[in-house]
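Reopening: Flagellar hook-associated protein FlgL still failing for me.
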Amino acid sequence: MNDRISTGMMYSQSVSLMLSKQSRINHLEQQIATGSKIVSAKDDPVGAGTAVGLDRVAAGLEQLGKNANNVQNRLGLQENALAQANELMTRAVELSIQANTPVPGETDLKAIASELKSIQDSLLSLANSKDGSGRYLFGGSSDADAPFLKSGGTVAYGGDQTQRQVEVAPGQLVNDALPGSEIFMRIRTGDGTVDGSAAAGNTGSGLLTSISRDGSDAWEGGALTIRFTEAGEGAYEVLDATGAVVANGTHAAGEDIVVGGIRLRIEGEPAAGDSFGVEASSTRDIFGTLDKLVAALESDPQTAAERTSMQNVLQSSMRDITRASENMIDARAKGGAQLAAIDDAASAREATSVTIKSTLSTLRDLDYADAIGQYKLENAALQAAQTIFSQMQAMSLFNTIR
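Support: Ran it again with your exact input. Result attached.
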């Protein structure tokens, strides 16, 4: 068998070699120009697929960062609104104390009532606060319309009870702003567990100034009535919800009455037949509490008994306002905890992002020293191939014969 090397085959091999070197040089030029060693997926199919997956993760982290910025803005606005509301509550307590002294006259009481109405309007405005995108902060998930509406002198909540959760880092959720019903509407009266009030028909000067549990577990939540039986003597009896007498004693002004796990302080001298009720705390909205307070200030008491009745309402309102203020402080604390969680999430996102960027750099970033070295080597090989091809073209049998 004879193998013959033809001129055509030599030409074909030389051209193929030069084209291969030229293609390699073009590829290296693209890598150097872009700074990426993966110009197309065929350069490293596994690495390219991994890089695409990491790109998706990085894009997800970026979206989580936007989520975090949005909820952080809303929680910051909630904090500002609640701080202002708490200042208004503090002022309402100051006005209640001022009204509960013997000094203010009818004109002063009406001025205090007028300022309390202004405080109520300001609270309503804060309760309808918006975020930067025009959504209402305290409407729950129904945040397109104002959650609090005043109709017929009564404020009603039109939002829902949903507190949205927002993902701010992989697997980490934070709570959005609280629903307004939890802040302004469903506020426990009294000390949050037990409440008390003076009977409307009392004729003495007895003033219920405080009520709370005595630290024991004796009270089981049932209603009690402290009824005074002797004028000036301080004798009283305690009745349960069925009207049965369960205890009795003698009371001196300023001393606590401790009965059934409840501690009450009654100032002044209750008249015979006067009574004070004890019951489990109910819920009342802050707007209703202020309405009750304003109505008492505008009642224009004429007699000592009416004055005492008004003062008992003021005392009850002060307890409720204080409880509302504590409720707002609790809400601010919850918001602060979420803001801290957002900061922690930002650190987690940053750490993950750094890891992803480092991995992507390993997969994609070009080693310029190696690429430039290969580029020079391929250029030299192309020039050598071109030289050989030129020399081969000059070769001829006629040249040999000559």
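Residues 54-189+321-352 form a domain with the f41 fragment of flagellin, N-terminal domain fold (CATH 1.20.1330.10). If you still see a failure, please send the error message rather than a screenshot.
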